[in-house]
Amino acid sequence: LPSWPEVEANMRRAMSTFSDDPSMVQGWEGQFELSDYHSLLARALEEQSKFAEGEGERRKARSLLHAASQHTQVHPSHILWKSCSLAEVLLEQRKFREAEVLAREVANECPEDCQDVWLEAIEHLVASLRGLDRGAEADEWEAQLNKESGDEGDELMQKDDVRHDVEDDNEGPPRKRQAT
Predict the structure, then answer these.
(1) Is-contact 175 161, C-beta < 8 A?
(2) I need a surface site. Which of 36, 66, 70, 76 has the fewest CB within 10 A?
(3) Does residue 127 contact residue 157 with C-beta atoms inside 8 Å?
């Protein structure tokens, strides 16, 4: 198996192909593929504790995939996973406020068939709230997370609505999402 520095070098070489031939990135297929390359490079950087660089690559990956989704049908989970990965690297850098906003965004946008993405977004939300010294709110979400992750029933999961006005400190319990 190659080391993470080798993976980084290999990904940078592979991505240089795209810069050498811009026609490879034209169209949604190229954007989709390049998005995955940026994600892999981000992982290699993060494994080497190069979190700021990894964050930049995660943002590029997410942006490219979003651009591709404007031209073809991309399952929401693909973009949401990229957003969760970005929230995770933000947490690594102690950017708790930005991670909180992103985790709430992901959780709110998750369709019912993306429970695993929702659970990860809530894990990131809990971590960001703890980093912001908002333990009581984090405890509420952690209890909800434990309840939801342990319940593998056939019923559709009814998720709490994690939308709060991010301009204030939002004390109080989360609101329930309306069943659709």
Answers:
(1) yes
(2) 70
(3) no
